[in-house]
Each structure stands twice: as C-alpha cells, then as structure tokens.
Design brief:
Length: 218
C-alpha cells in the first residue's frame, strides 16, 4: 500500500490550529490528532470540542489517537464528530474487538495502539477486526522524544501475521519518526507514519512531508 504520512498537530501552534492543519492539506494524507487526558498519560492536550470545531475548518482526514482511560465511553463520539480513523490504547481497553465494532458502526475506521511496554503478541489475533494498528516507537505522552528502533520488532511481528493471513491492515508508527528513522520503520513493515516535530518543526512543513514520503517509498 502507498505510504500514509500523518503529521501530528501536537507539534503545531495550538493558538492557530486551523491554519496549522490547512498548511499540510494537499501534502499530507491524514492529520494526526493526539488526545491526552492527563490520566492515561501524564499530559493534557485537546478533546472533543476542539476536534468538532477543527473538523469544520479542513477536509483532511483526521487520525485521532486517544491516549485516554475509558475509551469505550469516549471513542465513539470522535467517530461521530467525523474522524476518519479512531485509535484507542490496548492498555486502556478490556474489550478491543467490541470497541472496534462500535467505531466501525459509528462510521470510522478502528485502530488499536500498543504502547512502548506492551507486547504485541496477545493482540495479533485481533487484527481482522482492526483497520489500523499503531505501534508506538516511544512511550506515549509527549512529542519530541527519541525514536526507539528496538520497538520495530513489533512492527515486524504484525507485518508477518498480516502477510500470512492476507489481512488488509495499516501498520502505523508514532514517535520520533523523521528523515533519519522513517526508512527503518518502512523496512520493518510500517505503512503509515506519524511525524510531529519532523513536520511542524521544519521551516516548510509541506516540503518536510514530501521528503518523508520519498524516504518511506525508497
Ligand atoms: C506522543 C504522540 C505523538 C507525538 C509524536 O505520545 O502520540 O503523536 O506527537 O511526536 P514526534 O513526532 O515529535 O515524536
Ligand atoms: Zn500520536
């Protein structure tokens, strides 16, 4: 599948969110929206009202990454708000298959995120119920952290299982993805790439996206 580049707006200027998202329209495939509740992770970002408002300001698909406790309660509202994909954390959900079904019924794709310290093996059998699986390449909570290449073994495990069972699933990586790390993530089998600092920290975000896309294809 063609690579997906999903800039994380966590690294953008929150006082100008609409313009920041508009700046990547045309160049990026998805806008990655990090929702943090200061409970599942020790950081607080934006929630449903902001996503609802932002949805009206742009046509780019939203890839919502919920770093929150109790996603069963909150995730469907993001699908109803027009998110293209809604990803919740395995560590916060005791019935991922049920929530994935609820999300699909609510009109979005369903994604499962695996944090740094969580093994992926127990979740491989859930792949048929998911549209995306997000393998964290850092510990979730903050942008700007260093990429951890050892976590790519989880990407390899998912890719192998997807190939054996002929599954259509996006394998997404999130954390420290930049020009010097995206190629190894792509080689491991990832085909969707979240990049915060590498895009919004660049002088020309659209150019940074083009460069990342070329490296992901190489
Ligand atoms: C962190 C978030 C990431 C973050 C990535 O928990 O899930 O999406 O924005 O930022 P960078 O690309 O700077 O590592
Ligand atoms: Zn994220």
């Amino acid at each position: 599948m063609e690579p997906i580049i999903a800039p994380s707006i966590l690294a953008s200027d929150f006082s100008r969110l609409a313009e920041e998202v508009q700046a990547i329209e045309g160049a990026a495939d998805w806008a990655h929206v990090d929702v943090m509740d200061n409970h599942f992770v020790p950081n607080l970002t934006i929630g449903l009202p902001v996503v609802q408002s932002l949805r009206k300001a742009t046509s780019i698909p939203f890839d919502v990454h919920l770093m929150i406790t109790d996603p069963q309660r909150w995730a469907p509202a993001y699908a109803e708000a027009g998110a293209y994909n809604v990803t919740f954390h395995a560590e916060a959900c005791d019935d991922p298959v049920a929530l994935a079904k609820t999300l699909r019924a609510a009109g979005s794709k369903a994604g499962l995120a695996i944090d740094r310290d969580t093994p992926v093996e127990p979740y491989l059998e859930l792949l048929p119920y998911l549209d995306t699986i997000l393998i964290m390449t850092i510990k979730a909570g903050f942008g700007g952290q260093a990429f951890m290449p050892e976590l790519l073994d989880k990407v390899r495990d998912v890719r192998r299982r997807a190939q054996v069972n002929d599954l259509e699933i996006r394998i997404e990586v999130d954390g420290g993805i930049a020009a010097d790390t995206i190629e190894q993530a792509a080689e491991a089998g990832a085909d969707a790439f979240v990049a915060g600092t590498a895009v919004y920290g660049a002088a020309d975000p659209a150019e940074a996206i083009r460069k990342l896309r070329a490296l992901a294809k190489a």
